[in-house]
Write a structure and sequence with these properties.
The protein is 39% helix and 19% strand. It has 246 residues and is of the alpha+beta class.
Amino acid sequence: MIEKVGWVIVSECISDKKYYNPRISHDGKYWYISVGVEKSKPIVELTNVSLGIDVGIKDLAVCSDGTKKKNINKTSTVRRVEKRLRRLLRQVSRKYEMNKEGHRFVKTCNIIKIEKKIQQFYRRLSNIRLNHLHQSTSEIVKTKPYRIVMEAINIKVMMKNNHLSKAIAKQCLCKFKRQIQYKCEKYGIEFVEADKWYPSSKTCSSCGNKKNDLKLSDRLYKCECGHEIDRDLNAAINLSRYKLVN
């Protein structure tokens, strides 16, 4: 029984379990009720692998074991939804201009219909990205490393780049980090956050030499020792050794 709503039907019965902190949310289309349930932590046998994760724009994440998690925003599904969304935004903008009365914009029934469609497209994009984050983080954690190392993410500074701010916002890097953290806690994996000044990208993972003139456009790391490796993979390997070398 929910106040001002009435009786609601739930998909799972939790009467025999202790639950707390019920919350009701609405995503623009459906209503959800979520509760916390007390549950014992699973006992997981971890490996002796230290996993480094380098996040970015080209790929969502590159792990030190060589696995990559793709950027979902580059797929045809997301691009198709974004294209339809841009078309609707232009359409509603034209209708606002047509129905302008002096300094006041009149919202007609057609405008309301289009805005509801826009809301559904935003909801779809959000669900696609969130689902991809959950799948990617679960796949990483289920490799069962004894610790995971990630670099400190300063989104506020990253968003100052006018050329990359939109792509960075779409990647949802803060959500990715938060999901990794709570899933590590669930499986008993140590989560380490590397210092933001740690030169993971500029350091050679083979000889340890530091390349200070490395540019953002240099996607292939070439060292004086002859070692050539993908820039993101090099950073991930250095992050996996963070405590050993720092």
